[in-house]
Amino acid sequence: MRMMVVFEKGETLRYIGHLDLMRAMQRALRRSGLPIRYSNGFNPHIRLSFAAPLSVGVVGLRELMEVPLEDGVSEQAFQDGMNAVLPGCLRIRQCRALADGFPALMSLAAGSRYLIRFPQSAESDRAAAGFEAFMALEHYTAARRTKSGENPCDIRPFVTGGTLQKTGEGWEIALETVATAAGSLKPSLWLECLRTFTQAGEFPHIIYRTAILARKPDGTLVPMEEV
């Protein structure tokens, strides 16, 4: 059997890279005593897979991974067993047993939703003032880092929507992006483009990924755990 696991990677772990996160989860799985299914061969290992790696510096509120298990483990038992050995900044929030025919989570990843929070200041106010004009652009070319180096890319097709809200502590931007054949867009690059467009200087901020999206048969994007 396979378990879809929704977990939170808290603010204190936002600078931990993907490989370190994977190792931490593998160690927790071993310590939990849960009946994990290992690969065959001379060097058995846990075939742990994530729906979409999280950028360094981004908080993950509802990240997704897939864990192979032996039969007979309930969703609640898995969640309780993992949370008993994980640190407080890395918690399992939800589990769902998957049918054998359910696609691999990585193959379903079609986009992400982000929340960008930043305090009010002269520079952040300048960026917020130009938000609507920036979102109204049909094209915006930026240097996007790929495996072959930095290449100019129109980032606008990666963004499907966004809203700006004033809060008691500053500003919040809710952003939805899609993954295409050309790749995906890092929220830090989008924010850098907003600052460049509005001629705003740097300001402190925290980026949260609030959902990994999958596409329903009718084409709408929903959080993957709802598929």
Relevant terms:
alpha+beta, 6 helices
Overview of the molecule:
The protein is an alpha+beta fold. The protein contains 6 helices and 11 strands. The chain has helices at 18-32, 75-83, 105-108, 122-129, 131-135, 187-198; strands at 2-9, 49-50, 58-68, 90-98, 109-119, 141-146, 149-154, 159-166, 170-178, 206-215, 221-223. Strands 1, 2, 3, 4, 5, 8, 9, 10 and 11 form a 9-stranded mixed beta sheet that branches. Strands 6-7 form a two-stranded antiparallel sheet. β6 and β7 form a beta hairpin. The radius of gyration is 19 Å and the shape is elongated. 25% of the residues are buried.
Task: Write a concise synopsis of the structure shown.
This protein is an alpha+beta fold and 227 residues long.
